[in-house]
Amino acid sequence: MANVAVYNMEGKEVGTVELNDAIFGVDVNEHLLHMAVTQQLANNRQGTQKAKTRSEVRGGGRKPWRQKGTGHARQGSTRSPQWTGGGVVFAPTPRDYSFKLNKKEKRAALKSALTSRVQDNKLIVIDDMKMDEIKTKTIANTLKSLDVNKALIVIEADNKNVAISAKNIADVKTAYPNTINVFDIMKYNTVVLSKDALAKIEEVYA
């Protein structure tokens, strides 16, 4: 099992914690990571784009000039795609881009993402991330002392003060153990976990 250092909110090392190899020590499956990220981005697409084909554009019912004898190329409608104001050849239409991944694939991808962060030394555990008041400066100073700039902070669900305090910091996002996903883990440079959130993750995903 891998051991990682545990820090306090002042950035000082206060101990170590042993990580569960079933979550943080698996073989990294890059294909599943790619599929999970692609799925999340596809599922977020609205799919509401629309353009009109030549059959939907208003007008163009009359042939603009006779077939022969004018010196022009033959034309059947002023709403053909080559005309200004004409229809689009392969016009996009509203569609659903979402697709499904199996539960086992999702879970394996999440474990691969967490393992990759451990392997890259980009996973930090903080002993106690409790805050009595909402104060953005406290979180900013904590991240600065840990030398972290683009971070995903995972906290327990009842820790609202930390979530609100981190909301205004650029390139920082907070999540709960049951809302973490592969896209966020891979997007942010460092994953910062509270010790309680780590325990919850090991409980849910082991």
Automatic annotation (TrEMBL):
One of its GO terms (biological process) is translation. One of its GO terms (molecular function) is structural constituent of ribosome. SUPFAM superfamilies: Ribosomal protein L4. GO terms for cellular component: ribonucleoprotein complex; ribosome. InterPro entries: Ribosomal_uL4 (IPR002136), Ribosomal_uL4-like (IPR013005), Ribosomal_uL4_dom_sf (IPR023574). It holds the Pfam family Ribosomal_L4. Keywords: Ribonucleoprotein, Ribosomal protein, RNA-binding, rRNA-binding. The keyword Ribosomal protein applies. Residues 60-71 have a biased composition (Basic residues). Residues 43-86 are annotated as: Disordered. Forms part of the polypeptide exit tunnel. One of the primary rRNA binding proteins, this protein initially binds near the 5'-end of the 23S rRNA. It is important during the early stages of 50S assembly. It makes multiple contacts with different domains of the 23S rRNA in the assembled 50S subunit and ribosome. Belongs to the universal ribosomal protein uL4 family. Part of the 50S ribosomal subunit. This is Large ribosomal subunit protein uL4. It comes from Eubacterium oxidoreducens. The lineage of its organism: Bacteria, Bacillati, Bacillota, Clostridia, Eubacteriales.
